[in-house]
Amino acid sequence: MGFQQGLSGLNVSARNLEVIGNNVANTSTYGAKASRAEFSDMYAAALNGSGTSAVGIGATVAAVAQQFTQGNISTTDNPMDLAINGNGFFQVQDGRNQTFFTRNGQFKIDRDGFIVNNASHKLLGYQADLTGNITNTSDLVPIQLTTGGIAPKQTDKTNIEMNFKSTDSIKSVPISFADNTTYNFTTSQTMFDVKGQSVGMAYYFQKVGDNSWDMYVTANGTSVQTDGSGAPAKAATLTFPTSGGTPTDLANSNPVAGDPGTITTYDASGNPVATSSTGSFTLPDIPKVNVTNASAVPPIAQTEIISGVTMDLAKATEYGGNFAVTNLSQTGYAPGDLSSITVDSTGVILARYSNGQSKPAGQLVTASFRNPQGLQPQGSNEWSATYASNAPVTGAPGTGNLGLLQSGALEESNVDLTGELVNMMVAQRMYQANAQTIKTEDQVLQTLVNLR
Questions:
Q1: Pair 59, 385: CB distance under 8 Å
Q2: Confidence class of residue 43 from pLDDT cuts 50, 70 and 90?
Q3: Distance of CA 152 to the CA centre of its chain
Q4: pLDDT at residue 231 above 80?
Q5: Alpha-carbon distances, residue 139 vs 56, 106, 242, 350, 359 (angstroms)
Q6: Any idea what the Cα angle at residue 343 is, between residues 339 and 344, rounded to 5°?
């Protein structure tokens, strides 16, 4: 007669209560995973033992297995909060270059621009170069965000999609930008010089014949081309097909001025420079102009010359409808300062700037394991790889079996609080029952001792 069975029952029940208590304590811990105590029976074996009537000697804790099921995802107001929807772990690195794995996406930016968690471990991924290109063949490095701004870009292409009113009247008078009766339609946009200084561009269109339109261009109110007398000179002539459509004729490999479906550019003296049948042409050089007021005296700061700007009018049409601009775009922009950071579902970290531009700053990389239960808990919501877990398989979120990311959200603990409270009551009854076994054994033993 022994107390081994009851004593082992007390031990496993106490261990079970510890596991349940740890689960309950981490109910509100983001990224935490519930654990489960798994038991096995014990039998004493002899070298020559046989038979099926052996009585067990109790129970033992075979394993404390973590349950890597998906937790609920709750939204937050912090764009640096990240949640993995599906399989995978964030990879972070400590100061000794040790790599850990976590499901807790509560990240911040430290004083040096690194993305870190609450343990000051740095998030790993691919670093983008200064132009925003990400090379995913390089080794994983701590992602560092630059605090500098983005350099300006000079405009090199502009695109206008619009309709010219085919029934509008022909204007046979010299154009005057101050008199809207001398032209049929105007539209405007902003371009940028090499320093990122804005230049207000205006395009004036004057119908000079059936299906034929002259285009004049101004920069900050100053005509970019003038003739010998100082009067505005046209920059180009658009000739539409008789059926309307676009000023293009791709079948015309040797276009000349006046051909239907062409655009002809002119110099300041009114001489043809080039004729295009593709709808694209090069604008005249945009000269230096006063930054704000074209008529200021004495002259104030001026913009830089903008050369080689390609204008695309391939989607312009001439139909019976009203004048209408449906798209107006250009490729330049002013300098900008870093204003915010966002992360997309594939882990690409986008830096947004005050000038409306954005570019990738890096891409975080997640990892998966063949046996997540083999990971070793390290505290701070982190695990480390072991022989049992096998080596991590890394990749961008959304590739392979890796889950996508959700920015501005966190994964809650997967602990079922109601279930844990029920398990706690069951564990308590198990403890009481095993204690009763020891009590009964004690009473039986006392009976034997009292025999006379």
A1: no
A2: confident
A3: 22
A4: yes
A5: 54, 24, 60, 20, 21
A6: 130
